[in-house]
Amino acid sequence: MTNIPENLIKTLNDHNIHTVILPNQDYSQAFEDIAEAFDDIVDDIKNNYFKTPTKKELKKTWIDSGLQNKQPYDEELCTHIYYRYCVHKELQNNANKFLKWLSNQSRFFTYIRLELNKNNQYIDIIEYHPTTNLKNTLLDNLDKK
User: Fold this and answer.
1) Torsion angle (degrees, nearest 10) of CA 56, 89, 34, 112
2) What is the mean pLDDT of residues 16-41?
3) Which residues are within 8 A (CB) of 37 and not within 5 positions of it... i.e. 6 or more apart?
């Protein structure tokens, strides 16, 4: 059990900020925002976190997705699905590293890991704010309100 005040979690959630209490590492509530934040930058960054998929990997992704019998092959859609699989896998295996990287790459994505106490309890705070044109400062100022 954690010592996080419920009103803090509620306040963050009311502002569309996701909270993940560790060691649980259940990013399912934040997955769509995380994947969308990655999708928004993947074509514009020089050093992608994930390797560019090969034709063979894209074909496997298309088959694994079950779309091969439902619609004609679409390389752009398949690449999108490939990267979603990559994001999902990385959140399971190395979330902190990936989310730090994403936060550094995207001005519309904010990730902060807070240590709750000396017993190695942490909370990940995740916000995707694509409708603003500036870096969001809500997380920086939340404790001042």
Assistant:
1) -140
2) 89
3) 102, 106, 108, 109, 128, 130
DSSP state of 21: E
Mapping DSSP onto H, E and C, the string for 79-127 reads HHHHHHHHHHHHHHHCHHHHHHHHHHHCCCEEEEEEECCCCCCEEEEEE
For residue 135, pLDDT over 70 is answered with: no
Taken in order 63, 65, 71, 74, the sign of the CA dihedral is: negative
Q: In one letter, which amino acid is 138?
A: L
Q: Which of 60, 86, 90, 58 is nearest to 74 (CA)?
A: 58
Cα 1 to chain centroid, rounded: 24
pTM of the complete model: 0.82
Q: What is the pLDDT of residues 54-109, one digit of tens each?
A: 999 999 999 999 988 889 999 999 999 999 999 999 999 999 999 999 999 998 99
Hey, what are 14's tokens?
A: 């009311």
Measured CA to CA, the distance from residue 125 to residue 123 in angstroms comes to: 6
